[in-house]
Specification:
The structure is a homodimer. By secondary structure, the first copy, chain A, is mainly alpha-helical. Chain A has a single domain, classed as Orthogonal Bundle (Arc Repressor Mutant, subunit A). Chain A has 6 helices and 3 strands. In chain A, strand 2 and strand 3 form a beta hairpin. The longest helix of chain A has 17 residues. The radius of gyration of chain A is 15 Å and the shape is globular. The interface between A and B is large, with 44 and 43 residues. Chain B binds a DNA duplex through helix 3 and helix 4.
DNA sequence: TAGCCTACATACCATTAGTATACTATTGTT
DNA sequence: AACAATAGTATACTAATGGTATGTAGGCTA
């Protein structure tokens, strides 16, 4: 349930890729993780508008697709860290390019770009 | 109706971009158009499994977002040609990289990649 | 000890994306 | 007259995606 595009396994590389990084939040999450190891709460604060349920769901899908790893520290309060796998990291240059494109388009339309949020801690 | 992601206008470039090129078919269609001017039927034959309704819908969305242009020739039988705009063409290198990534992953998993179809004419 | 925090899980519901199938218009060909 | 070709429309439907609300565990804080 909740899997973006799980239908017929892709034979086209573009299709294959978009089945994994399409969806409303995946690009932004991967992009944010490109910055380094992040905790659940950090991601949630950086991805404006995402609900905890969606975040959990999306993170699990990315984990299932081996784009990120999830490390649980059994402390109290619990701590869960997410980081890109090699495969996931290999996507960052592509997302970088897409971001650059997006930035240019936004400028073109007079929209002010705000890459990612989150107040320091 | 049918607009993929029309919710709050993106402030993040990555979000902005994925709102335009996300969805099941957009990446593949743009990629195919990267090859040059294409007719409706050519696109339909190249994107396996797409229904005419979806294709029309997606093409209209790409047109609205100024990623492609649509040229109608009032002949019989009708002829409609689609081509990338400058903005759309600027996306091709990113899709190229994503495709390369996808290809590598597919190889890694023993899947045979089949970039795009369509028999010559 | 009553709530608060983190990091979720679960149930339920609404919206949106996508599918299936059939149909249209126009003109030339058989 | 029936059929082919192209580029779609129309209608009805299912599946995927996303959202709200609430629950849970264990320690921490007031």
């Amino acid at each position: 349930m909740g899997k973006i595009n799980q239908a017929p396994p892709a034979t086209c590389p573009v299709d294959y890729a978009f089945q994994r990084i399409g969806g409303k939040y995946k690009g932004r999450i991967l992009w944010f993780l490109g910055d380094g190891v992040k905790r659940y709460g950090q991601i949630r604060r950086s991805i404006s508008g995402i609900t905890p349920k969606m975040l959990t769901q999306v993170l699990r899908e990315l984990e299932d697709d081996r784009l990120i790893t999830r490390t649980v520290y059994y402390e109290v309060p619990p701590r869960v860290e997410y980081t890109l796998t090699e495969t996931g990291r290999a996507l960052i240059p592509s997302i970088q390019m897409i971001s650059t494109w997006g930035q240019a388009q936004m400028q073109h339309q007079g929209i002010t770009a705000m890459p990612l949020e989150e107040g320091e801690e």
